[in-house]
Amino acid sequence: xxxxxxxxVAALLAGAALNSPPAVAQSTATTESRIRFDIPAGPxxxxxxxxxxxxxxxxxxxxxxxxxLKSSGFSGTFTVGEAIARVLAGTGLTYRFMDxxxxxxxxxxxxxxRTLGPVQVEGRxxxxxxxxxxxxxPTATEDxxxxxxxxxxxxxxxxxxxxxxxxxxxxxxxxxxEDQNLTDFSSVMNQATGVxxxxxxxxxxxxxxxxxGFNLTQIQVDGGAPLATAGIHPSNSTNNSYAxxxxxxxxxxxxxxxxxxxxxxxxNGYGSPGGSINLVRKRPLDHAKVSIEGALASWNNQxxxxxxxxxxxxxxxxxxxxxxSYQTQDYFYDDAKTEHTTASGTLEADVTPISxxxxxxxxxxxxxxxxxxxxxxxxxxxxxxLPRSASVVFPWNRRQLDTKMIFAQLEQEIGSDWTAKxxxxxxxxxxxxxxxxxxxxxxxxxxxxxxxxxxxxxxATLQKLAEFTLSGGFDFFGxxxxxxxxxxxxxxxxxxxxxxxxxxxxxxxxSPTGTVGPPPVDVFNFNPDDPTYAEPASIPPTLQYxxxxxxxxxxxxxxxxxxxxxxxxxxxxxxxHYSGVxxxxxxxxxxxxxxxxxxxxYSTHDFSWPPSYSLVYDLSPVLSVYGTYADVYQPQINAVDxxxxxxxxVTGGNxxxxxxxxxxxxxxxxxxxLYRQERKNYAKFLDVGAYAPTNGFxxxxxxxxxxxxxxxxxxxxxVDLDITGQLLPGWQLSAGYAYxxxxxxxxxxxxxxxxxxxxxxxxxxxxxxxxxxxxxxFRSGEWLRNxxxxxxxxxxxxxxxxxxxxxxxxxxxxxxTGREIATCRPGATVPFQFAQARYAxxxxxxxxxxxxxxxxxxxxxxxxxxxxxxxxGISSQGNWYGDPRNYALTFRGKF
Length: 895
Fold this sequence. Notes:
Layout: H1 2-19, H2 28-32, E1 35-39, E2 42-43, H3 44-55, E3 58-60, H4 63-66, E4 70-71, E5 74-78, H5 80-88, E6 93-99, E7 102-107, E8 120-121, E9 124-125, E10 169-172, H6 174-179, H7 185-189, E11 195-200, E12 203-211, E13 214-215, E14 218-221, E15 227-228, E16 254-261, H8 265-268, E17 275-281, E18 289-297, E19 301-313, E20 318-330, E21 337-352, E22 355-369, E23 398-414, E24 418-439, E25 451-476, E26 479-493, E27 496-499, E28 543-545, E29 549-564, E30 567-587, E31 593-607, E32 612-620, E33 623-634, E34 639-640, E35 650-663, E36 668-680, E37 683-684, E38 704-705, E39 707-708, E40 712-728, E41 731-746, E42 768-777, E43 787-796, E44 799-806, E45 809-813, E46 820-824, E47 829-836, E48 839-849, E49 854-861, E50 869-871, E51 880-881, E52 886-894
Parallel strand pairs: 3-7, 14-17, 34-38
Antiparallel strand pairs: 1-5, 2-4, 6-7, 8-9, 10-16, 11-12, 12-13, 14-15, 16-17, 18-19, 18-52, 19-20, 20-21, 21-22, 22-23, 23-24, 24-25, 25-26, 25-27, 26-29, 27-28, 29-30, 30-31, 30-32, 32-33, 33-35, 35-36, 36-40, 37-39, 40-41, 41-42, 42-43, 43-48, 44-47, 45-46, 48-49, 49-52, 50-51
Helix pairs in contact: 3-5
């Protein structure tokens, strides 16, 4: 595979060099001189004047030629010719150097117009416009040098500015990812406003994310149909989640990430009430460009990346891009390691002046020796006081994750006002894993308690996604009205097998007293080479879903009406359908499959009501006030009550309002949002009745006996503040603050009111969360102008967890499935509660532009070496230290 990828990139490099469009004739001195430009959005004539002043050139053109035209602005270090090309992008104008200091502006010859950037008319980005970096994407942030974006598509499916989007949204741009050395999905989300990162079973390899007290499960790519990252019915069997998409993403493939807080059911159907994430790929550029990156970091972290793009023929109408990256790393804790390879290729063709076709692929391979389950604590929750380097990693642990994705897109302009887009994706991922992990709280006297269990299996997901949108507008009494209609389809299946915890070890160890069970582990004196922990032979699968799958599809309509010049009314409807299938499998007492039953199918559909709606009022050309409502609807179709009747869906709604502003000539976006969100009718298992010994699972092994308590309401409310962009020339800022109060309200199934001092939905999510990063590039001095310095802080208030832990188990056989199970011995539970006190970690950055092509940067994280728990689990497992002080030295070359 690597040979094929290297050949693809080599061909792309050669094609980009041979087919790069001829440069506009200009003097050698002008071609080689690179100047720092900071051009604000505004009239085109003003942008040209600023270029003339900074570049020492004179423009020749008629004022009628630029009348009514605007530029979206840009900042960065470019030649004068590159700067002119960017402000003229999409205007239908071109330029020609008459001599070293004189430039003529004229109309472009049809078919040879350079489309390097969007032209904004009356504050809106028109359809069919291109990105400021020379791509066809109007939301592109690459080469802008900015921490904000003039346009995005999350929450609307169409290109809009942040101020026009009536939701709490933010963006992490290409420049910010480079400056903060954000190379993977988890590190990017850890910088997103209001997001708490929670490490899962395999620590950083299984991170999940919480926003406004709810898990984030909605991920789109290029605004397409949402990927299935988890079972969308909350009461799903715990093992079903193994067959959904694992987000091991390399940020080298993406231009920027858009994040919407709160539910987005209108465009994404059944999904997370916490928010929606849109990953935007890098697209081929209309000019040749090669980027090279190499990095050395703490704990033997090494990374290389190559990105090549440019025109491949047909006068630039056929373009391509290839990206490869390789990373290997250890961790600050002992024995774990990861190796990651990613490659992508994209081809793009303007088959007609109004039609563009894009096809591409992505390949990811990850090999890891993971640490599973993290650290335990003492029985009452007290910290063990172990060093941050301590771990319990077994040398035979393994995880092999392979992802293959192919995608295609058709963009078709229809007249001057309408655009149709069709996007299709096929994703196949396999996850082969075998590991040992410990679980159990530590006895403060004997220092024993944790025992070793293990798991082995292979699971897979095959997803097929499609999305169609038709968007455009029309004038009504001189006011612009916009409409978007479309639909999407998601199919997920493939299933796999999973071999249950403890079955690898429970029959392998006999204690000195003759008790059979998993072997104990002394976490204070752990020796991974102890023969007691030798790799066991694999066993037949004890859980298998040969036909696990789900489908959802929906159609939607969204319209924005302007009854008054400054007033925007936005509303939409959606019809959604969901269906799923699981194949029942039976086992004997040894965990061997004895039969495969018939398929169990289930489905539901609904029409969104009340519909989503928003009101936006433009207080000024740069300031808007908005209010919005979005509903929450999640089916629970494999859950039944104790009369075996299917339970209803999760319902609720999100009310949100605030202010949006574009500051400093549109170079900075600011949002202040207040929200209140409610969710109810969540299906839960009640630990009483005939099915209590099986945790509520019925004999078919598929459904759970549950109840829905309409008297219990999950409440989440708070404030989001987000400011990103340029404050002064050379000074970029990203600042996000979130206050969230989430709690249980009403009464539980026993009639007891939730009146305790702390009954949050997610106690690991702090009430106050602050994330700030800023960078300043000096603008004068022979060497100082090549220097930039930056720094940031992430701070949060107290987070806690509580519950009870089992200290002794009895082993037996599950009466439903025949599988071996462990049951907590009566009276062997100890309550626990512990907290992570408020803390803050700081970062520093220093970068230097060595010459026109090469730069070097040094990033320092956790500069005070703060010791804290990044994720708290329970007393028996799931506790992960935050990274100690660390560094990353990165060299980048751009040609």
